[in-house]
Amino acid sequence: MAAEIQPQPQARKPCLLSKIEAFQEVVSTAMIIPKEDGVISLSEDRAIRVWLKRDSGQYWPSVHHTMPSSCSCMSFNPETRRLSVGMDTGVICEFILSEDYNKITPACTYQAHQGKVTVVLFVLEMEWLLSTGQDKNFTWHCSESGQQLGTYRTTAWVSGLQFDVETRHAFVGDQSGQVTILKLEQDSCGLVTTFKGHTGNVTALCWDPVQRVLFSGSSDHSIIMWDIGGRKGTAIELQGHNDKVQGLCYASHTRQLISCSSDGGIVIWNMDVKRQETPEWLDSDSCQKCEQPFFWNFKQMWDSKKIGLRQHHCRKCGQAVCGKCSSKRSTIPLMGFEFEVRVCDSCHESITDEDRAPTATFHDSKHNIVYMHYEPTTGNLLTSGSDKVIKVREQMLVFPLKADRNRCGIRVYQGFELTPIYNIITDLSILFCEFVTSYKLKCCNFLKNAAQMSY
Ligand SMILES: [Zn+2]
Ligand SMILES: [Zn+2]
């Protein structure tokens, strides 16, 4: 049989476009200004800086504003050039940047929290300023009147916050590892549901309003894709980092998820791939291949005079097998395993080279990543590192779409063998019924998945 040439991802390295190296301190937050070759940075020396790219190709500071205390987070709205900066004192300061980005003007201050502001998010459509703090409060202010509209007590410090304008849902990820979904009204809010899946803190959240998918990253190294638009309660785990997930961005036009971890790893996930469900792990008292008893099966051990063996599971077929019958390892990207995992001998034979074509790419930024920002209009990616350097990289690679692989199905990226137990606390139907059902992903049943992942 003639060998078939498979399309391979264009695995070129994300090309470094520019560096900003003038910092004495680590840049805690930074973002690319859309349509303007500029960057806004917030660094540990309490300075807000705006950098504009000059004809030489170098970024030069056009604004340098020192704040009275340390700044922890910011939100920038390009249409109004409104910059909201959260501080360690609990105050949020609002500024307006001039049209040429050469001037910064204070506009308003909010005494929003008792402790450090952990996340701030300005929503132009609602004229709302959402924020969370170390006082465990989630609050929202009217950005026109400056008045606090409402507050909600969270279970732990919040480290991730996203908002869906269409349905007015806020997604709040906290240090306990859960994501709380709140429905906001003008001056009140209701708890819709809680997502529990991570075994560590939620460190980053990313909401894709088109597919209606929420991605959560965690200090447990994993990312979970909560498919709300699919309306079936599907939660898919993506395992590709060896350290705390530090940032998540979704490029909806190329359907790529970009994630970074504090060890400098950047993973680009192709989310436009037909994926199969991972199998449920089967229960058996003996190897389902060679029928040798497992070590707890005393009766068969005695009857057959055989020594009990340790049980393993084939990641492809889910059968309970002994070590001898599952001695081989393989990647199974179409089932989400980008790294080699245990498979039984017969499954190993059935996996073709085409099946092994990778669907995520892994890059090393060579510095610990503190913050990441993706700018969709240019496709450029900004990272800020512990080396006190901001790096801007050009558009990340685009996977070729393959007719028989896209638009139908789900995928569990599981690079590692450990997967946490999923648990959805409350009924999702309240949330689902409000969501527009534009979905291309056909998803497996979440609860079924939950059972197989509980190992
Ligand atoms: Zn066996
Ligand atoms: Zn198998």
TrEMBL record:
GO molecular function terms attached to this record: zinc ion binding
All residue ranges annotated as the FYVE-type domain in the record: 281-352
Subcellular location: Early endosome
Keyword Zinc-finger: yes
Main subcellular localisation: other
One GO biological process term: positive regulation of fat cell differentiation
Top-level division of the source organism's lineage: Eukaryota
A GO CC annotation given for this chain: early endosome
WD repeats: 195-228, 238-272
Family matches, as InterPro entries: WD40/YVTN_repeat-like_dom_sf, WD40_repeat_CS, WD40_repeat_dom_sf, WD40_rpt, WDFY1/WDFY2, Znf_FYVE, Znf_FYVE-rel, Znf_FYVE_PHD
Keywords annotated in UniProt: Endosome, Metal-binding, Repeat, WD repeat, Zinc, Zinc-finger
Pfam families with a match to the protein in the record: FYVE, WD40
SMART domains: FYVE (SM00064), WD40 (SM00320)
PANTHER family noted in UniProt: LD41958P, WD REPEAT AND FYVE DOMAIN-CONTAINING PROTEIN 2
Name listed for the protein in its UniProt record: WD repeat and FYVE domain containing 2
Natural source organism: Cynoglossus semilaevis
